[in-house]
């Protein structure tokens, strides 16, 4: 049974394990194996947005509602992460740095109950390919909001310092689509 406070506590405890990321992936897999329980605990997804469930210097837990057709530019995290999906679908496109900025090197479509660990140096773009909200829990092995990092223009692959305003705009645009449908 998923409970928010218990999940936070278990993730914090997992930080003292030999492989915190693997331990948290196990917790995540157990959590998203019962997606309805997470909806019960965190609420029904109605609008695109992000809720910070926990933020500390060594751990960030986010509850993400990706809006219909929402796209997040290629970006890095500079810390390990674990993603778990409990509603909808999340398309991940992975990139590597190259002479022309970035080169695509794979995609991964995550569905409900899927989890994925992401390495510290991963660069990815995230899309919700659906006309409904995708609900995901993202756990990061550090203070996600304090970490300076990069994002890349989706077309030119030019690298810039990450700008949270772009992400906020993407949430707002997808909420506008949500209202018009
Ligand atoms: Fe990301």
Give descriptors for this structure:
binds fe (ii) ion, 5-stranded antiparallel beta sheet, 4-stranded antiparallel beta sheet, 181 residues, 11 strands, 4 helices, single chain
Fold and architecture overview:
With 181 residues, the chain is α+β, with helices and mostly antiparallel strands. 27% of the residues lie in helices and 39% in strands. It has helices at residues 4-14, 20-32, 35-42, 164-180, and strands at residues 49-55, 60-66, 71-76, 81-87, 89-98, 101-111, 115-118, 123-127, 134-140, 150-152, 159-161. The chain has a 5-stranded antiparallel β-sheet with strand order 1-2-9-4-7, with helices on both faces. Strands 3-8-5-6 form a 4-stranded antiparallel β-sheet. Helix 1 runs antiparallel to helix 2. The longest helix is centred in the C-terminal third of the chain and has 17 residues, at 164-180. The protein is globular. The N and C termini lie far apart (34 Å). Residues 75, 77, 124, 126 line the site of fe (ii) ion (FE2).
Mean pLDDT: 95
Q: What is the H-and-E element order?
A: HHHEEEEEEEEEEEH
Number of E strands: 11
* Order of adjacent strands in the largest pleated sheet: 1-2-9-4-7
How far apart lie the N and C ends? 34 Å
Can you give the helix content as a percent range? 25-40%
Helix count, DSSP H or I runs of 4 or more residues: 4
Ranges where pLDDT stays below 50 over 5 or more residues in a row are none
Percentage of residues in DSSP E strands: 35-45%
The rough form would be described as globular
The chain-level structural class is alpha+beta
Largest sheet: 5 strands, antiparallel
What are the distinct ligands in this entry? Answer: fe (ii) ion
Question: What would you report as the Rg, rounded to the nearest angstrom?
Answer: 16 Å
């Amino acid at each position: 049974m998923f409970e928010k406070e218990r999940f936070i506590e278990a993730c914090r405890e997992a930080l003292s394990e030999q492989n915190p990321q693997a331990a948290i992936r196990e917790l995540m897999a157990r959590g998203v194996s019962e997606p309805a329980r997470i909806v019960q605990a965190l609420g029904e997804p109605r609008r695109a947005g992000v809720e910070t469930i926990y933020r500390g210097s060594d751990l960030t837990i986010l509850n993400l509602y990706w809006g219909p057709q929402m796209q997040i530019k290629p970006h890095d995290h500079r810390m390990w992460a674990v993603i778990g999906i409990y509603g909808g679908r999340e398309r991940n496109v992975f990139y590597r740095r190259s002479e022309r900025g970035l080169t695509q090197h794979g995609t991964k479509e995550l569905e409900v109950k899927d989890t994925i660990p992401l390495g510290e140096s991963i660069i990815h773009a995230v899309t919700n390919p659906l006309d409904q909200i995708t609900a995901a829990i993202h756990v990061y092995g550090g203070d996600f909001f304090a970490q300076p990092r990069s994002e890349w223009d989706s077309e030119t692959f030019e690298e810039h310092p990450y700008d949270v305003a772009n992400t906020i705009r993407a949430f707002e645009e997808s909420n506008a689509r949500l209202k018009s449908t």
